[in-house]
Design brief:
Blueprint lengths: L10 E4 L9 H28 L6 H30 L3 E3 H34 L4 H4 L2 H27 L8 E2 L6 H7 L5 H36 L3 H29 L8 H25 L2 H21 L1
Parallel strand pairs: 1-3
Antiparallel strand pairs: 1-2
Helix pairs in contact: 1-2, 1-9, 2-3, 2-9, 3-5, 3-7, 3-8, 5-7, 7-8, 8-9
């Protein structure tokens, strides 16, 4: 479906993960299972943190924000795959497509910023433990979270406005399973120089490189402090408190770097889809799993509430 003139289009066609008819049912079931698992794991984290007063600490406050963002990212990116299978409609309106681009990129930026705030929380906890509760009070945590959310949305806005100014597309068919920025740029026959400059300045430097550098700086101080601890038990305990966060940070930056910063010669449509699927479907599941498996407080809270609801259920029976 080629667009022969500069008439503004009103919708796009999202091709999906695969065109093979035999794979549609397995793909739908897999995506549905992944999405429901993401919801279950992250909602569980949200409920545990909200209901257990032992988890009312800055680290779990930010973990709640991270769970909300994981749910939002999965919903934004995977809902079209599910809707297409159920309704058989691959079209998405022009406005909905660009709102999807804006929200997905904003939530991704928010996640990087929230992880940066969590690295600052770990820095204060390990490098300045005596003043931890004074520095990381509720007001400070709320302020950091609000700044992260607002900056994430503001950072993407110039890119979105530039994309909305495009008037010419070589095709209405997006070879992806959701509306992502790079596939849309490839379809445009407008001059994308300004947009590419925005992406370098805001997407790479402000949204990715700056949070990464702040996180690295925090961990330089953290590691230096841990190495000065005399006892091996103390060093192990201090490292344990930030190991979950460090694992999540490494996983997220690694997947984003592979997805968006590979040399063009190594990028294929199929590999880009698989990387996007891993980043938008698997990573949101791994985040709560990593924090749960490596965190005794979360495991203890889960056991307490499991026991509580089991007792209630037995009384009802």
């Amino acid at each position: 479906m080629e667009q022969a003139n500069n008439t503004r289009i009103t919708y796009f066609i999202v091709k999906g993960i695969s065109d093979v008819p035999e794979l549609q049912v397995p793909i739908f079931l897999l995506v549905l299972l992944i999405y429901l698992t993401t919801l279950a794991f992250n909602v569980t984290i949200l409920l545990l943190v909200c209901m257990d007063h032992r988890l009312h600490t800055p680290m779990y406050f930010f973990l709640n924000n991270l769970s909300i963002l994981d749910i939002c990212c999965s919903t934004i990116s995977l809902h079209k795959v599910l809707i297409t299978f159920i309704l058989g409609d691959k079209t998405v309106s022009f406005f909905s497509c660009f709102m999807q681009v804006f929200l997905f990129l904003s939530f991704t930026c928010d996640e990087l910023l929230i992880l940066t705030a969590m690295s600052y929380d770990r820095y204060v906890a390990i490098c300045n433990p005596l003043r931890y509760h004074a520095v990381m009070n509720y007001k400070m945590c709320s302020l950091l979270a609000c700044v992260c959310w607002v900056l994430g949305f503001m950072d993407i806005l110039p890119c979105l406005l530039e994309v909305l100014s495009f008037t010419c597309y070589t095709s209405m068919e997006i070879n992806h399973f959701f509306c992502d920025l790079l596939p849309i740029i490839k379809l445009s026959c407008n001059d994308t120089t300004t947009l590419e400059l925005y992406i370098i300045i805001e997407g790479v430097f402000l949204a990715t490189f700056t949070p990464l550098m702040l996180t690295i700086i925090s961990y330089i101080y953290i590691i230096a402090t841990i190495l000065r601890i005399q006892s091996a038990t103390g060093r192990r305990k201090a490292f344990y408190t930030c190991s979950s966060h460090l694992t999540v940070v490494t996983l997220l930056y690694a997947t984003l770097s592979y997805q968006y910063f590979r040399p063009p010669a190594l990028v294929t449509l199929s590999s880009n889809k698989l990387t996007s699927l891993f980043n938008t479907a698997v990573v949101p599941i791994l985040n709560p799993v990593i924090y749960s498996l490596k965190n005794k407080d979360v495991i203890s809270a889960y056991k307490r509430f499991s026991s509580y609801f089991k007792t209630k259920w037995q009384k009802c029976i």
